[in-house]
Amino acid sequence: MKVTESEEIKIGSVSNGEERVLSDKNSDDICNSGNNESCVKNADKDKSDIKNRKENIAVRSSKEIALMGATVALLLAGQFVLSGVQGVEVVTVFLLSFCVAFGVRRGMVVATVFSLIRNFIYGFYLNVIILYLVYYNFFAFTFGFTGKFIKNLPLWAKVTILSAAAGIITCCFTLLDDIITPYIYGYTAKSATVYFYASLPVMGIQAVCAAITVALLWFPISKAFSLIRL
Fold it and tell me: Per-residue DSSP letters for 31-93?
């Protein structure tokens, strides 16, 4: 079967899965019929669209970097100022709220930067560096995905799930420390066992405090984050 020039050809797939179709004849008519002015206008429009897209990406990236930087600063300041106040898990509730609002990728970037920069304040200890990097990236991954699944749930269900999850995940911090610290410092089996049992009361208190802090503060913090548009 002979194919004429006026028949439509496929020129690519668009993002929604549909195929965009143009006519060879119509394409030739635009620039080959002597109407060069239309060609110039279309080319200028395409260049303008590309420029606008690049500018929008640059603005969005700048906002994203500023937001993540401000969040890291807030986490560092909160941990430093409230380090002497027992029972307020400020890092937990702020990072949790950020991850739920802005997702896994941004949450893990904030978690990594926070875990590294805090060492300039509290000192460089290998076990602590490893502990924070592992724990807070796991934390960000967990709550970044949790934010997607609870999006359409009623408020009481969101608060319940996030509070319970915060308590459980906080236990992982102590349990990871019970593994990492004895290994790094070469504890004997007996010393490691004593270290483990000594950490259990602290773990229980921290878990309860984390759950209560999230239950009380997650919603107002999340409302503040909801005002930010990237």
Answer: HHSS-HHHHHHHHHHHHHHHHHHHHHHHHHHHHHHHHHHHHHHHHHHHHHHTTTSTT--HHHH
For range 179-196, the mean pLDDT: 96
pTM of the model: 0.75
* 82 CB-contact burial (10 Å; exposed 0-12 / middle 13-18 / buried 19+): middle
* Structure tokens given for 176: 């990871």
Between the CA of residue 79 and those of 37, 84, 137, 206, what are the distances in Å? Answer: 63, 9, 17, 14
Q: Could you tell me the two tokens for 67?
A: 């937001």
The answer to whether the CB of 119 falls within 8 A of the CB of 129 is yes
Of the chain, the end-to-end C-alpha distance in Å amounts to: 53
For position 44, what pLDDT does the model report?
A: 60
Q: Two tokens at 112?
A: 């990594």
| Residues 144 and 103: beta-carbon distance below 8 Å | yes
**Residue 14 banded pLDDT, cuts 50, 70, 90:** very low
In three-state secondary structure terms, 181 is helix
Nearest Cα to Cα of residue 96 among 173, 166, 170? 166
Number of Cβ atoms within 10 Å of the Cβ of 170:
25
Domains of the chain by range and CATH?
Answer: 58-226 (1.10.1760.20)
Q: Is the Cβ–Cβ distance between 80 and 121 less than 8 Å? A: yes
